[in-house]
Amino acid sequence: MSPGGLGEFQFIERLRRRCKLNDTLVRGIGDDCAVARVPAGELLLTSTDLLIEDVHFRTAWIDMYDLGRKSVSVNVSDVAAMGGQPLSLFLALGIPADLSLEDLDRFTEGVLSACRDYGAVLAGGDTCRSPRGLFISVTVEGAVPDGLQVTRDGAGPGDLVWVSGTLGDSALALRELLAGRQPPEECFRRHHDPRARVKLGYTLAAQQFASAMIDISDGLLSDLGHILDASGCGAVLRRDLLPLSSAFLQFQKHQPEVNDLALTGGEDYELLFTSPPKHAEALRALSTPDLPRTEVGRITASADGLRVIDAQGRPCMPTRSGFDHFK
Ligand code: ADP
Ligand code: MG
What we know:
It is built from 10 helices and 12 strands. It has helices spanning 8-18, 64-80, 101-117, 169-178, 185-192, 198-206, 220-231, 246-254, 261-264, 280-285; strands at residues 25-27, 35-36, 42-52, 85-96, 121-130, 135-145, 160-164, 212-215, 233-238, 271-275, 293-301, 306-309. The chain is α+β, with helices and mostly antiparallel strands. The strands form 3 sheets. It has a 6-stranded mixed sheet with strand order 8-10-7-11-9-12, with helices on both faces. A hairpin with a 7-residue loop joins strand 1 and strand 2 (35-36). The structure holds adenosine-5'-diphosphate (ADP) and magnesium ion. Adenosine-5'-diphosphate is lined by residues 12, 15, 29-32, 91, 93, 122, 124-127. Adenosine-5'-diphosphate binds next to helix 1, strand 4 and strand 5.
């Protein structure tokens, strides 16, 4: 790599100077391994995401600063979905020779700003030259109090299905970008700078409200499918209850077909969780974090499969269900 003539070790040194340690990190960038403590009584959570130019992002559409932030947020979202808090991030980069130093700086600026937002530190990584395109691999380590981790396999018949925030905004933005049109600003921001719902995730875990949880990266139907597979259950979703942003609703007035995106569109990074009905009142009353939570359906016996109905109870399943890299 040599963006602006910068060598690998100069790049690492520039990064190192801007990264601090925190209470759990004993040694960060600059040694053979990062050295960290797991807080007493907590379990270590680890997750990795890979972002490849022209597969996950296009540099023509996303600003490098946003790309840095998004690389961190999509990864931290997995920790949020277990009810944990992120501690350390690891960043492995394959950098093409034609990436300018200015763009690389904006990217790392975005990475560090998102780390700060989530109270995590950049603790290490790897840096290589890429013969073509930018490769970004981010690994997050987080922690959750032992026993409070929320997995995908805990849903049971009768549990209510909830989602945070609004659905479909990111997919609506992608649809418009792919068609060569400018998306509504609110959707564009959601697509390029999604926020991981860390506070909500750990609040749900701490209160033991959620029986199963996942973050919505591939679409509501697809990700609910993962909970149902793991839990051995079915579910019925009420299409008319799906939470939609004002920008999405406005857009849908003229192009009603985009409504499917609330069920099938990826990259919302909202939390999808199930909860026994006895917690419904307390869940609605949760004042912190200040984020909408909407009840969208119910878990049923596995023989029922996954059904989508309208307010009158009529079936209304979209034809396409979610994103799959191999299809
Ligand atoms: P090694 O040869 O032992 O793999 P490196 O020279 O690759 O060591 O890395 C030196 C230090 O810099 C390590 O602490 C590593 O974690 C860190 N590092 C390298 N690349 C990055 C990066 N892109 N982001 C954060 N830390 C990095
Ligand atoms: Mg290395």
